[in-house]
Predict the structure.
Amino acid sequence: MNHDNHEVKKDAAPHAVCMRGITKRFPGVVALEDMSLDVRPGELHAICGENGAGKSTLVKILSGVYQPDGGTLEIGGEMVRFVCTRDAEHAGVAIIHQELALVEELSVAANVFLGREKRTALGLVDDRAMAAECAQLLESLECRIAPDVRTGNLRVGDQQLVEIAKALSLHASIVVMDEPTSALTESESARLERTIAKLLARGTTILYISHKMGEVFRLADRITVLRDGRHVRTVNRADTSPEEITGWMVGRKIADRPASAPRVRGKQLLEVRNLCLPWPEHPRGYRLSDISLSLCAGEILGVAGLMGAGRTELLETLFGAGQSNWTGDILLEGRRVRFLHPREACDRRIAMVSEDRKRLGLFPDLDVAGNVSVCSLHEALYGGLLSRSGEDALVAGSVRETGVKTPSLHAPIMGLSGGNQQKCIIGRWLLTRPDILLLDDPTRGIDVGAKAELYTLIDQLCRNGMGVILTSSELPELLSLADRIIVLAEGRLTAEFSRSEATEAKIMAAATG
Amino acid sequence: MPPHQDSFRQPFLLRRSEWALVLAIVVAVGLTALLDANHSYATRPLESLRDIARNTALLGIFALGATVVIIAGGIDLSAGSMIALSGTVCATTMLALAPVEMMGFKPVGPAVVAVACAASLLAGFLVGTLHSWLITAIRLPPFIATLATLVGLRSFARALCESATSALTPTKSALVNVADPLFKTVRDNVWIPVAMFGVLACITWLILTRTVLGRHIGALGGNEQAARLAGIRTDNVKWFAYCFGAMTAALAGLFYVANESVSAPVNQGRGHELNAIAAAVVGGCSLAGGVGTVPGTVLGAIFLRVVIDAVSKIIKTGADVYEGLIVGIVVVMAVTLGQVGQMAKGGRKLLPGSLGLCAIPTLAILSGAIVAMTAGPRAGASVAGASVVLLWLLRAWENSRTPASSM
């Protein structure tokens, strides 16, 4: 796509978005401080920053979810004050949230027109007219979704297109995308990029929030970097490099991970033979089919695969957290096991960090200490009762080992950044002293700096003799961490590579094959 | 870092909202002492105290059970019916073991009483087991499962009472009189239920704060899926929670029988489950689960009973007539006051748009009617008028400050 034509029309028209001195405070934190931002009409303006840099707060202010404590906001040259999301919609701002805001039980068309339903002459809901217009919108996005499908049945990538169709139906002149590819497969991301090109061709202004440098540098006209709630700088894409941007994001140079010396493989811990997991209600008939793998102490086994390939199902089956109607053999140190509950897996020294931190990992009402100690409370018992100091000592050790940054062991867990929350959960499992650690996409939604720290931590654990199975949506992560990589496609194991054989191209070919 | 500098640590004694409840209790007692024309707090302090203490203890015992269930992320709507069933099981067991003494209003002996009480607690355990089976194995939502037992258990208790009396006594009866001196002792010595409440509160507090099980209860209520994936046997934790809920209700049922010297399954404990939930909510429990404390619930129960007592003293009617109204108002006020700070910050309004407009006359009519019934029509009319004016001013003030707060 050619962005140069967008550059031409700058300065003539008023800014699409103009923020001056926007400040937003929450109890104890300043989420945005004196934030100023100009977005030119028709450009794709990327906003980069680590988690906690204030990106999401910025989006919420633009969409009327939050009201800023100070500063002014202009949309298309007009001063606006958004009290609710409806105000933002009226001003032509549409938001594609990171966590999609669709009603799963409603049809696609009903979601697109939610709150603005078309009526017949009798005042009844006119499903036919909505379906027709929705079909048109979806077609213009070159996506083949029937407007009468239940939204919950769609894949995440398709749901996102429904959100974009909704933005189009609102005639939004400004579309804000908050980390839109965080849950997409590579092919879905490519389709999204084509959609973005179409939006830009129509003259839509796009604010694109992301910390993936690849897509930012493919798409953006200009890039703004935020750090700690402040504007660091705004630059033309042509005048900068990914290294420079990530440097500004973290405020320091990221030291390259030391070229890892080869790890020493120990004895075999786990062997899986011909594992099949049926899925009767699906045309494919299985979630996993004929999977065989092995894991030794002191090695990292990477599991690559697109979304829906069965990565999570594989780990959940090994951990006893999924359905138990699988067939095949799982051998733990040579003995057949069939876990019916995660407890049984824990007792055999297996630990699993699940992919969706918020939904499957965190206890929002417990503090940092409570979240870390929950699996090993029996070690803090004195005379049958929990000892506060015993628990604190346990947690303090774990927090030190994983490098969690928290103001206090008793701070609310939800106040920590995503990276620190993830470290807390890994620390929770390290306290159980597992032999096998299952990590399901552990760096999802984590900022660059914290990712590097997690890599070091995982590498260290492995060198200390733990066997690690790691899934990831980001291939470079697997390529740099794993000793061996297996590739899943639609529930089948399609390839296995050693570290030296594996390349992104080979893995992608196997994952789509 | 030294613990005393750690501002995130939970305070040792009570949280801020709980201190506010203590203050509210003191204020309610003070107002009653001032406004009560008979000055019964001054003239008969012991009697008043005994009254409130007994009622608080009876409510508090099963409110503690409700608290545990709510923190575990569930709800138990059946406590009132469990109270009736517990009383019936106790009375019919005694009737079966000692029919002559029971019919002759004579002592049945401590052994029989002990067996009868144990049978009641066993019934509580069985009902708790039934609940957790329905919820974990059949996968009914807790609301549905305990709604079924709310209606079902009372009916069961009545049927049990009628069939037991028709089999063991000359006439079928809807109630069984309990005249054993042990029960009379409990009735006449208020300290017994109060001590039981105190001991039970301490045990519950210990379980919730200082045991692995208690931590797992909070984890389950906060995030059930994460709890399972952390290796917690969530089904067993739920089993404990629902059994604790039902058994505390069973225990309360025994005290109700003692208090009224009769087991009457038609009406005993009717509607009490909601008072227990109200006490927990006023004490800071979140119905979403994961949040709540024992001191909160204890204070919530005391506050509810103090306010109910205050109203019955001040307007001199039976407490039961206004009880439901008071509980309703107190729950709404407690939860609203807990949110006022957030509302002001988030720019949320109490009286937004046309709904707020219609809420003004609704609230005015409600307050006017209540005052009219208690203090006469003229007072009612003026209260209604004053409410309209005040709420209107509040709405105007909210509307005027919104734009200012948004920028």
In short: Chain B touches chain A at residues 1, 6-10, 206, 209-212, 214-216, 218-219, 221-223, 225-233, 290-291, 347, 402-403, 405-407 (CB under 8 Å).
